[in-house]
Amino acid sequence: MDLKLLEDFVCLAQLQNFTAAARERLVTQSAFSRRIKALEEWVGTDLVNRDCTPLALTPQGKLFYREAEVILRKLYNCREEVRALGKTSEREIAVAAQNSIAQTLFLDWVKRVERNFGSIYVRLVSEKLIDCVELFTQGHVDYLFCYAHKNIGLPLDDSRFEYTLVGREKLIPVSVPNGQTQEPLFALPGNPAEPVPFVAYTHEALFGKSIDQLLQDKDHRCYVQRRYENPFSHTLKSMVLEKLGFAWLPYSSILTDLRDGRLCRAGDEHWDLDFDIRLYHHSRDSELNRIVLQTSREMDQRNA
């Protein structure tokens, strides 16, 4: 049996809603329903009463839920112990980081950790948020660097995983300047006759979701024409520099471009979006882990 089916069922039992549980597990509702059905077929009985609202577990489902929680907890704990034994060095860590963080804050973070602890071996995986979360929750990495927005939930169970704030980031709308006036070539808010060309994050990306919310806000009425999309900031930045439209980009990644005049604001601070930068971690009692968390908190205090 696939371990993911147990995790799916525990999530469903806790949220008591197929739609919410599917969203938490990062799958479509139809796919999630099929997975729960597959688990019931493996067990040999119905675990969920689908005829009541809110959803309820059958007596068999309640028993299975209690045991599934125990099994998962034991497996997670065992995995952590085995991984700790398998470490080639007490100075080795594995980190998953969203692409933009890997290109900006991450290097400074590593330098500060080494300043406080000494040289370490770091294995960095830089991917989309969904992929980073999966690596972390499955125990393939020790730490997860990610952005967080106050209005958008992350696909992580905060009751299972702790985090510390490392810093802040701001998304700002930028364009190449008009060569003659140094004003933005593409500027918000646009107008119905001439919508502003917009290179965007995918709708599934955290940045994409936050921008979609902003554009639906009545206080941020604008007229944009979505032309290209990609989940990675550095790709959108290249598109902006090629004069394909404007984009919201992390401020820390474009400081030099703004200073040197290659980019300029496409809208004032009214259009900015604020994010926290979180470091999720597993519960491990080691000197290196203590230094990592202490260093991360110190960075947040400096950036506050």
TrEMBL record:
A molecular-function term among this protein's GO annotations: DNA-binding transcription factor activity
InterPro entries with a match to the protein in the record: LysR_HTH_N (IPR000847), LysR_subst-bd (IPR005119), WH-like_DNA-bd_sf (IPR036388), WH_DNA-bd_sf (IPR036390)
Keywords recorded for this protein, A-Z: DNA-binding, Transcription, Transcription regulation
PROSITE patterns linked to this entry: HTH_LYSR
Top-level taxon in the UniProt lineage: Bacteria
Residues of the HTH lysR-type domain: 1-58
Keyword Transcription: yes
Family stated for the protein in its record: Belongs to the LysR transcriptional regulatory family.
Identification of the protein by name: Transcriptional regulator
